[in-house]
Every structure is written in C-alpha cells, then in structure tokens.
UniProtKB/TrEMBL annotation:
<dbReference type="Pfam" id="PF03932">
    <property type="entry name" value="CutC"/>
</dbReference>
<dbReference type="InterPro" id="IPR005627">
    <property type="entry name" value="CutC-like"/>
</dbReference>
<comment type="similarity">
    <text>Belongs to the CutC family.</text>
</comment>
<dbReference type="GO" id="GO:0005507">
    <property type="term" value="F:copper ion binding"/>
</dbReference>
<dbReference type="InterPro" id="IPR036822">
    <property type="entry name" value="CutC-like_dom_sf"/>
</dbReference>
<keyword id="KW-0963">Cytoplasm</keyword>
<protein>
    <recommendedName>
        <fullName>PF03932 family protein CutC</fullName>
    </recommendedName>
</protein>
<dbReference type="GO" id="GO:0005737">
    <property type="term" value="C:cytoplasm"/>
</dbReference>
Length: 220
C-alpha cells in the first residue's frame, strides 16, 4: 500500500479522498491554474468534516512563482489566517526572477508557519539545478518537496525522482506528483523508492476526485 496525498480543489473532493483512505489532503482552489490559495470558509468547512491531515496551498495566483511585495504580503497574511483553523501544514514555493529558490522569502513563510510543516510545491520543477535547489529547499526548513523530477510528468521525471530520493537521504521527503495515477504508481514506487505519492485522482475532465481512483492509488 502507498501513502497518498490527494490534491483537492473543492470540499467534495476532500471528503471523497478522506472517505476512501487518503493519508493527507492538499487543499487548494484554482484547478485550471494548477492550484491557488483556497478560501478561508472552504478550509474551515473541510477542517470540520475531516480529521486526516490537511495541508493548505498558499499561492496568490497562477503563472510563475516570483511574487511582488504586495503578493508576498498577501501570502503571509493568508497563511496566518488559515493557521488559526488548526490545519496541519502549508504548501508553497517561491523562486527569484532567475528561477532560483528564493531562500529569504521561503524561510520567512516557513518560520511563520511554525509549528506546522511546509511542503515546497512544484515550483521546484521550474527551478534551476536539481541538486543545488534540493539543498536550498532543505536549508529553508521545508519537510517535503512535491516534484515530478523537473520534467513535465512523473513518468518522464522518474530518473530524477530516483536521484532526489537518494540525494535527500531522509533529510526531506520526496513527494512524487504530476501526472501520477493508479496505473503508474506501482512502477514509480519500485523505481524511485519514494515513500509518498500525490495525485488529484481526477479521472475525467471534471473537478472532483474519483473514489475508485483514490482506493486504487492506496492499494497498488
């Protein structure tokens, strides 16, 4: 069985994921933008309904991962508000204008999130230099990196994912995600030796997690 985090873009998906054995929820909004900060009321509702860990996305908009001063201030303020709901962690990632990991801003958010752990999301896949970026993310204090191995999807990125698992050597969790499905999770787990997997479990062009897919991801 795999440890699985389901990316949920609405409360319905979070409940489906919870009821079908997901280990953790990544709660976000903005499906078409690849995930943005969910609304406070949405997060509150989900927290009331489910008791597995909820990690909340902090991302003010789609597009790149370099933010203006105003956007960074918004990220800090939303994180503080959402923290009051007793969520279990946060998901974000900031790059500078040269696509390097922005150590200063990421560290500031990681500090603000304490005692809750943080995941550096797929901004990692846009960052330059796999090895160097890994060390920077670890230095910032993140507990997890969500990545497809700096390739468009996990199948293409599997060599890099295996390398990241080896390089991280237990210092940070490598969360494998980006085109992950029940059809390829088994092969990826064996090849990469990663211990945690991430999927939206959306099997059509809709917005909701598929219960059977959540079960299949868990049981493969």
């Amino acid at each position: 069985m795999s440890k699985v985090e389901i990316a949920c873009f609405n409360p319905e998906s979070a409940i489906i994921a919870f009821e079908n054995g997901a280990n953790r929820i990544e709660l976000c909004d903005g499906l078409s933008e690849g995930g943005t900060t969910p609304g406070f009321e949405t997060a509150k509702l989900v927290r009331e309904k489910i008791n597995i860990p909820i990690f909340v996305m902090i991302r003010p908009r789609g597009g790149d991962f370099t933010y203006s001063d105003a956007e960074f201030a918004q990220m800090k303020s939303e994180l503080v508000k959402l923290k009051s709901l007793n969520v279990d962690g946060f998901v974000f990632g900031i790059l500078d204008e040269n696509d390097n990991v922005n150590i200063e801003q990421n560290k500031e958010l990681v500090e603000l999130a304490k005692p809750y752990p943080c995941t550096f999301h797929r901004a990692f896949d846009r960052a330059k230099d796999l090895e160097n970026s890994l060390e920077k993310v670890i230095d910032c204090g993140f507990k997890t990196i969500l990545t497809s191995g700096q390739k468009p999807n996990v199948s293409e990125g599997k060599e890099n994912l295996k390398k990241l698992v080896e390089l991280s050597n237990g210092r940070i969790e490598i969360l494998v995600g980006g085109g992950l499905r029940s059809t390829n999770i088994e092969e990826l787990r064996e090849f990469t030796k990663a211990g945690y997997f991430h999927s939206s479990a959306i099997t059509d062009d809709g917005a909701f997690a598929n219960a059977d897919e959540v079960v299949a991801l868990k049981n493969r």
